Request: fold
Amino acid sequence: MSLIEVSRVTKDYLDGKTVIQALRGVDLSIEKGEFSAVAGPSGSGKTTLLNLIGGLDQPTGGSIHLDGIELSVLKPRQLHEMRLHHIGFVFQAYNLIPVLTARENVEFTMLLQGVAPRERKARALEMLEEVGLADEANRRPPAMSGGQQQRVAVARAIVTKPGIVLADEPTANLDSTTGAGLLDLMQNLNREYGVTFLFSTHDPMVMEYSRRLIRLRDGQIKSDETRST
Amino acid sequence: MKILLRLAWRNVWRNKVRTVILICAMTAGLVGVLFSLGLTNSWLDQIRENAVRTFAGHIKIHHAGYFDRPIVTHAYSAPDSLASTLSAHPAVRAWAPRSSVQGLLSTASRSRIVTLVGIDAEREKQVSVIADAMQEGGYLDEWKKPGRPILISRKLSERIGMGVGKKVVLMSQQFGSNEVGSGAFRIAGVFDTGNVSFDENHVYLQQADVQQMLQLGDRVTETVLMLHEMEESEEVALELSSAYEGEGLAVLSWKERMPFVDKSMELTRRMMVPYYSVFYIAMAFGIVNTLLMAIGERTHEIGVMMAVGMGRKWLIFLILLESMMIAAVASVLGCAVGGGLVAWIGATGIDLSAMAEGLAYMGVSRVIYPRLGWEEMTVAGAAALAVAAAFSLYPAWRAARMEPVEAIRSVG
Reply:
């Protein structure tokens, strides 16, 4: 069984009286341990697809299964639980809670999971060391660079050991060197810990790093290629 | 939990100016409530104290029929044990006998119906304010001139146009007959209790003079008691009542004798509730407004928190926590400032001489002393917290209803 099964998924939006078809019958399977990217121009539907897989939005048609569970039948509270325990998110920017320190941000999801304070702190520090930010643990996001903030976001996303990390254009606001460093980090986490990553991107560098590249255009998959890196 | 507390506290101080303004507004509101409460307490205390200290005492012992028909026929000879019982009772601070009847006060040109109050001059000092309220001349026991002394009020003195040293004639029904007893008295002193309606209608004489004029023998019409603690009035009255009911006496606490005072105090307290509510409603609007603005500014962040697994209950809890923190700071400050202000002004008093005439008719003195109890301060502070909690539910509910995907799309 695949980690993610997307079957004939459609998503329509209403823009005034006009119906916009963001996704038109997408079929996709993601296996455990993949390091994949959904690429395409703006408006191709890649962020919509990630939001649907992450249970942040509901499809108009079709079904999405995560670890065998159909997301559309879950109630809001169950979706929260699903996101909390099975999915990690990294967004384009403003990922972190600005009034919490890097360590507290990483601890945040563990707090919601009910992890004991001492264990929470230890795991957060361990994860920050993993992403190269052990010395920045007590700094708050506004005092950190964009690259450092994204690393903290990655640490927060993987500290709870989710089934998959969904990263929506994680390098969009970073320069190429910082972006490459972030991708190296995520690639190492993928190789070392087997964390599954699914990106949405139009950054060629992210596409280069990905072992599988799914191209979307006008809400439909145009190509799906697996490469060896 | 610590992180959530820290998050809430830091969120509160994200926009320092806005938070400080809200805290100041809530503090001012609470100070307003506490000061009003202090004034009301003082006002009501004075009405009660004046009623009790001027004449009524905490407890009165009458003939059983006197309360309904306060006539001389209902005078009584005190049982032998009464004086020793009252003097030995631990709750009784002082007691005094009185012979109080309606009568007619006449001068050469004017007459007025008044209450003649025959008192034991020495004992009366312990149970009423008359001795301390002397304005001219002297108290009954200072009278050294020929003739029987009488004390009248300043108001009555003005009405009848007679002052210290002048002669007045008193008349009233004698005990045990339909005859009228009368006598001439010299004005020994003029008093002013500050309670005009009382002053106009009461004159004070030596008890022996009244007893002789009205052929009362050793009879009195009432024995007035002052206790160490006013709150014990009903309990002590009940105890004495069971002891002397069989002797044909009625023992009544001030609440039983003057139910209108107690009821009007209660009514006043109830009538103040809508007034206090205005302060709390203003606080509530401040909280709702601030929280809605804060939530609007943090929409993207709330979306991210929901995306990473923060459930609606957690979010509502976080916003309630922020609101409670603001309210807690305002409550502590409000109670400190309000309590301090009341204590400070309470020590010196507020001089209301400008409206003294009106106040005097209501039984309130010219200077009032605001007063607050810890219980009232706690309730007022807790009410601010309760209002904050109740009125932050709407902003919290709005935040919890956000769709994560919509919230994340908003500009961070």
